[in-house]
Amino acid sequence: MPLTTPLIDTRLDGLPPNFRGKVRDIYDAGNALVMVATDRISAFDYILGSGIPDKGLVLTQLSTFWFRQTTHIVANHLITTDVGQYPSPFRDHEAILSGRSMLVRKTSPVPVECVARGYLSGSGWKDYQATGTVCGIALPPGLKESDRLPHPIFTPATKAASGHDMNISEEEAGRVAGTTLISTLRDLTLSLYAFGAAHAESRGIILADTKFEFGLTPDGTIILIDEVMTPDSSRYWPADQYAPGRAQASFDKQFVRDYLEQIRWNKQPPVPTLPETVIHRTREKYLEAYRRLTGEELNLGNRGLA
Questions:
Q1: Is position 24 within any domain?
Q2: How far apart are the C-alpha atoms of 294 and 298, rounded to whole Å?
Q3: Is residue 271 classed as helix, strand or coil in its secondary structure?
């Protein structure tokens, strides 16, 4: 099936978005929000000139899968993904919103990203090489890149003014958001990771690490928000190709990053566009992750199945 044109920006007549993130456009819906996952893709903190067709569908539908699977651990902000149940102005835009949006509860987001790591990779590997620790947590000497950790660890992060994630210790996170709250979020993060990792393992996939975000309702209840265990917020590796001591094949932006390194982009504007081969291979990785984790085909609306 030929690739469709990616949805880069949502344009809903008379409904300007309150916020445009790297991937999501967020609209105020009175007592709730409408979150729309576009097909934008970012790398090295820049939104690229090309999108990945159906990526927003994968992010929304996989998050919905995990939201429904994890309610026994923590409540979440999902109200519905049925556009017919959205407030009236949004129901007129079902063609755009179906499959890539969700109506969610409003919260006060906790200003700390909650990361769980079961394997030594990414910024954690860089920290370990430099200090022997990750976010202040001492690890055994002699670990290799991509090694499985003795046990999963909680490694919070905050956003710097530049938009980069900045690893911090649990103690520092407590100073940002409150020690008691961070202690609770640590336990929730590790419980969610353990659940997700066990499910992924049963599908032949390693969940190396993942990032969660939480919000507080007006009465102070903690709920899970944003996206959950998607290829954008996680490192997923095919278990049958796993070999510590090197970077791993993954179900995410690997082809995009590799291409950008190959063309020696200086990671400054102007941002490059991607060749069709890279777009196609990246899309297939997102779709494969969705199929393997959920056991279902992605809902592509009127266009049939991938």
A1: yes
A2: 9
A3: coil
CA distances from 295 to 37, 80, 222 (A): 22, 21, 30
pLDDT tens digit string along 86-128? 999 999 999 999 999 999 999 999 999 999 999 999 999 999 9
| pTM assigned to the model | 0.95
Between 55-69 and 276-294, two packed helices, what is the crossing angle to 10 degrees? 20
pLDDT band at 305 (very low <50, low <70, confident <90, very high): very low
Residues 95 and 72 in one domain: yes
Query: 210 and 120: one domain?
Result: yes
271 in any annotated domain: yes
CA distance 268 to 256: 16
Question: Which residues constitute the domain of residue 274?
Answer: 19-107+254-301
DSSP β-ladder status, 42-43 and 46-47:
antiparallel
Burial class (CB in 10 A: 0-12, 13-18, 19+), 254: middle
Same structural domain for residues 48 and 119?
no
- Residue 198 within a domain: yes
Q: How many domains does the chain have?
A: 2
Asked whether the CA dihedral 114, 120, 121, 123 is positive or negative, the reply is positive
Q: CA distances (Å), 87 to each of 36, 101, 211, 226, in order?
A: 15, 13, 30, 20
Residue 306 in any domain: the answer is no
